[in-house]
């Protein structure tokens, strides 16, 4: 860590340890919330480069503009299914603004009728990211297409609610099954270090969670419980009168997420492109994430009348939208073979299963009021008509 990071991290540690001295051990969710979103020293609040080569991790939208351009194709189809009128696109957690830029660039180039009618609303918690977004998106702001709002201030709307790697950044509670009882992992501060301790559940909804997703926790196992994702999906689907919720994130259906062999959960931290499972180091200077329970999101949205029209790995989703055809087209535009190869390697990150983003990332598309559409993203791989060895 550099000097500024060390100073900020020391200040945050001191604040959290003081809080624990005053109140006793805090839930892991509170600890994670302070590490990521403390108003002054939180990982997402302070001024730093988080996303991309100079930061701590890549996101698909930071890898290549093709990710956003392909998502734009799905958005165009949703707009057509909704009658081609005024359309609101809400993106929460827009990071550097890459996805918004690529979607709006694609609409401006390829579907100007939609570009002229779209209102793109960004909900962004980090002041630093908001500044970066304003800079990157200046041309579309000047064209009157983008505005920023608070989640609580978002009125009911029709269109599409979009996120990429938002839900995995919500603070999670940690729960373990010990002696046949669910226990919560609390964070204490003892002799200059954060330590974990067990306590009875701090919120009855933590026990309800395992019943809701019909997946009991196995003795000795640990799991993250993302209650914030439950509340979030409930509110999103209440605000969206007609249209789609598109969620892209690391995660699994409940049976896979809470499988007996997954003994220690999925908590992962990222610092300078190194991953670790230790949330108590680099306090406030590393990202902390937990895989998303997509079954939970489906169940909550179903209560508000939303149907899952697509759920699958990112690679399938992108292939359905024309990834291979675009890869071949973009490669053909490169006259220098070395640059063509570099492009191929970059783009393959979006679909590769091991070490890439193709399989661990899932895409969930839920709609209300659109019937049972035949979606572009659901085009089967067998229908693509290009053999992978041609690429
Ligand atoms: C991992 S980054 C993903 C960035 C971006 N979607 C991308 O594809 O590069 C998470 C983003 O969500 C933002 N964020 C986290 N919690 C949020 C919340 N509750 N409301 C709005 N933004 C939030 C962070 O500040 C950050 O911009």
> Uncertain spans, ≥5 residues at pLDDT below 50?
none
What ligand molecules are bound, each kind once?
S-adenosylmethionine
CATH topological fold name: Rossmann fold
Query: Can you tell me the number of structural domains?
Result: 1
Under the CATH scheme, the architecture is: 3-Layer(aba) Sandwich
Q: Given this structure, which CATH class is correct?
A: Alpha Beta
Give the integer mean of the pLDDT values. 94
* Strand-residue proportion: 15-25%
The number of helical runs is 15
What is the straight-line distance between the termini? 41 Å
Q: Report the strand count.
A: 16
Structure description:
The chain has 391 residues and is α/β, with parallel strands linked by helices. The chain has one domain (3-367): 3-Layer(aba) Sandwich (Rossmann fold). It is built from 15 helices and 16 strands. The model has no long low-confidence stretch (mean pLDDT 94). Bound molecules: S-adenosylmethionine (SAM). S-adenosylmethionine binds at residues 44, 51, 59, 61-62, 92-96, 98-99, 123-126, 129, 151, 164-166, 169. Residues 44, 51, 59, 61-62, 92-96, 98-99, 123-126, 129, 151, 164-166, 169 line the site of S-adenosylmethionine (SAM).
